[in-house]
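Write out structure tokens for Transcription accessory protein.
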Amino acid sequence: MNINHYLKIAEELKIKQKQVSDTIDLLDEGATVPFISRYRKEVTGSLDEVQVSAIRDRVQQLRDLDKRKEAILKSIKEQGKLTPELEKKLDAAETMAVLEDLYLPYKPKRRTKATIAKEKGLEPLATRIFSQESFDVMAEAKKYIDPEKEVNTEEEALAGARDIMAEWINENAELRIKMRKLFIDEGKFVSKVIPGKEEEAIKYKDYFDWTEPVKTAPSHRVLAMRRGEKELFLMLDSTPEELDAIALMEKMVVVENNRAAEQVKLAIKDCYKRLLKPSMETEVRLYSKKRADEEAIKVFTENLRQLLLGAPLGEQAVLAIDPGFRTGCKTVCLGPQGQLLHYDAIYPNEPQKKIAESGALVKHWVEKYDIKAIAIGNGTASRETESFVKSLGLPKHVLVVMVNESGASIYSASQVARDEFPDHDLTVRGAVSIGRRLMDPLAELVKIDAKSIGVGQYQHDVDQAALNNSLDDTVMSCVNAVGVEINTASKELLTYVSGLGPALAAKIVEYRNENGPFKSRSEIKKVPRLGDKAYEQAAGFLRIRGAKNPMDASAVHPESYAVVEKMAKDINAKVSELMKSDELREKIILKNYVSETVGLPTLQDIMSELSKPGRDPRETFEVFNFQEGVNEMKDLKVGMKLPGIITNITNFGAFVDIGVHQDGLVHLSNMADRYISDPNEVVTVNQKVEVTVMEVDTARKRIGLSMKSDPFAEKKPTGGGGRRERKPKEEKEPEGDMAAKLALLKGKFGK
């Protein structure tokens, strides 16, 4: 690893070089991000998951850059064109774009207009014209007329020379850097509807005639315009003003005012339109897409994290209902560990309306299976089914909870569901998923492709590899933050435990099925193919309740058991007593246990864990109820204040379920009484909020909501308004006399 990379990463992340190098060593040894941030704080200087992930991702980028440099150096060497100066420039390149700019003149090409002109012997003419000396251009061009080479006139000779000059200009690395900056800083997205598609493209109406700077365009609008273009509804351009681009090129290339310079200017215009503009626009589109993807992925992963870490009901018997009208309500009874005890269908809604019969069945199941909560999916007929259940006069301790069922149908048709319930149909599996989501959202949602959970923004438009990597990181982070009970966890949940993965997760479940529950963490080593490294990475995140050693149910890593046992021995207590007594723990003097391998950060973590061994870090479950009598959009009135629950957060606002089968949008400008730039400043997924109805558009199924304390207060004018166009910045004329300027030009272009 290049030591300069350590320095670069340390500088970018504002941490020490040693923290970077030691973290990279751990990653290269196969350690996971959760393990490093939780159990190797002495090594990394207490870096958190975000910092460790940033180091991992950045070092991969730099290694990819190094590989590309090696390939380019090899290619240029084989051509016999590598100079010490070029090698130095290649070595100093810090981005792929700069690296490719330097390689462009040496890159194997298809047959271009310039190569054809060179074959006609026109390169000497191009070289003389490009010097911009004063001479008779037409007379010089006449020398190159050669019918056998298909050069029949002076103009044909000049055209070929311009083709060669255009390619020289296009391949100049310094010019490309400045042009790239112009495209990014001053480029504009210009979106227009394709004529004749106005009605068909109505969902893109906002972009029928839209202009905004590339540099500041938010993620959701970039992805929306690109999707509209892909679906052949919109025409999208993303360039700066052509005059500004040409002016920039002329300032860098034109050094005289004569006939030769006029030919160079013509070559510049041709270069821009034919070569540089398409190339730069492609790059800018990739740049803006990458930036939009990163923002969308960030939004998605943050939503997913909040959803996965939603408060669990816990191990209690649940009756789950997947509501419906004509086909009835699929109903299942689940035991405290989520096991399926019973399934059936009831018909309390239209058209059957078997209310008495359905009610009797629900009451019977509640009593027979000691049901503590009833989970109702929030899809079709949910509010009607909720009203029916609440009318039954069930015992007060039985909670009635509406559960977000996004993705339940995906789960029910998946191989995971078929493996779990091979003898049951889709409807039973879907109802089971709804019930288990209430009991433990994390354990159930890991079984579903994260993109199907319903908390993303343009998730199918972003880079899928980057999205999947980020989502996997998020799921792994959440799973390991909570910890996993190894004796009840599904294969899918175990897959995300640090150091395991699908193959070892399957082996653990297989071993558990054949040998019964694990009695200790050390027994995990008996699982086939689970070696010392995997055990080291996973053990601290696995829990075994009721184990002989109480630390097996905690986040204390087995490698630290000896330290805890010594602590207990030093105060004449048992480990179990130490874990129960604040008074005993206060007797421990941590500095007495610092060693070469165990420092204060780990000791402090151990003491924190002993005070709450194995405690779930998620919030306590609270029941939420929608407003009674407000079940459909037609029940809404502007000005109504309603309880709601945040279902999805985007960078332009948050969507809120208010119980009418259509989420409403609280725009960023309506989220707080103060100015905010990011919805995450004030809301989280699953948060309970009170909203005011501002707008109801039944035809377009749109509901506008506000979280302001006085949303109808008159807005004061803020001044300005509209989108102002920014003028391109003017570049200063290079200093020095004309001779110096000409020397500079020759140096830049090497001609």
